[in-house]
Structures are given as C-alpha cells and as structure tokens.
Amino acid sequence: MKIFWTICLVALSFCVNAQTNLDSKISEAFGNEYLSNIKLGNPGLYNYLTFKADISNIELQSTIDKKYSSAETIITIIKKENGVKIEISVDQFILEYQNSNFNPLLYAFPETHEYAVYKLGNSGSYLIIKPFKN
C-alpha cells in the first residue's frame, strides 16, 4: 500500500510541476494578471494556451512523410520580444527551439485545425504543428 501512495505522490508532483511550467510560459508571454484572469474567468482559453505552451505540440524534424513533401517554405518567423513583434531567421528559431527554456507562446505560428508542416528555409528542417482539439 505504501508503494501505491508513493507512486501517486510522485505522479501528482510531476503533474503540478508540469502545470507550473506551462503557467510560467503563459505568464512570460502575456503577464501574471492575464494568467490570473483567464484561469478564473475563461477556462477554455486557459486550456487552449496551456496546449499551445506545451513544447510537445511543436516538433522539428529533418525528415517527413512523403505526403508533406510540398510543404510551404518559411524563411522568417515572427517572435514577440519585450512586447514587440520581430522577424527572426529560421536558423535563429532552430537555435531557440533547442533551448530548454523555449516558449512556443512567444512565436506567431499559423492557426490550424489539422497537422501543419512547414519547411524551414534551406535548413533541412521541418516544423510540425499539432492541432488543438477540444
């Protein structure tokens, strides 16, 4: 029985830490007051933003399925930095993506209701964005 409760506590701790990390990404992108307001007043938006903040919903890959071989090529990506939108190169984006502090909410990705695949310039990498589903 002790093993069961230990496993439960470890799992709960992992979930709380993951949620705190997602909350910090929302706060970084939109501010603490905004985060507090949506958590209380707009749980649908909060769920959407936690999905978008989760790095596992965005992938960089060097190979893709043949059905995506005609993927649109992106040469720059819009990033929000200090409240200002700037264009960064795909090479800069790839470097930032590899950083453990990467926050997807700071980048303007096209909205999609299905998997989206974009070729990142001449880098040989592809950006895959998973869709949000309610």
Model description:
The structure is a single chain. This protein is an alpha+beta fold and 134 residues long. It is built from 4 helices and 7 strands, in the order αααββββαβββ. The chain has helices at 2-30, 32-41, 43-53, 90-97, and strands at 58-61, 72-74, 76-81, 84-89, 107-108, 116-120, 125-129. The strands form 2 sheets. A 4-stranded mixed beta sheet has the order 1-7-6-2, covered by helices on one side. α1 packs across α2 (32-41) and α2 crosses α3. The longest helix is centred in the first third of the chain and has 29 residues, at 2-30. The radius of gyration is 17 Å and the shape is globular. Residues 4-18 have low confidence and may be disordered.
Brief account:
The protein is α+β, with helices and mostly antiparallel strands and 134 residues long. The protein is built from four helices and seven strands, in the order H-H-H-E-E-E-E-H-E-E-E.
Q: Which residues sit in consecutive blocks of at least 5 with pLDDT less than 50?
A: 4-18
Number of helices: 4
The total beta strand count reads 7
Average pLDDT level: 83
Major sheet description: 4 strands, mixed
C-alpha Rg (nearest Å): 17 Å
SS-based structural class?
Answer: alpha+beta
Q: In sequence order, what are the helices and strands, one letter per element?
A: HHHEEEEHEEE
Task: Give the N-to-C terminal Cα separation.
Answer: 36 Å
Helix content: 40-55%
Strand proportion, as a percent range, falls in 15-25%
Spatial shape: globular
Strand arrangement within the widest β-sheet reads 1-7-6-2
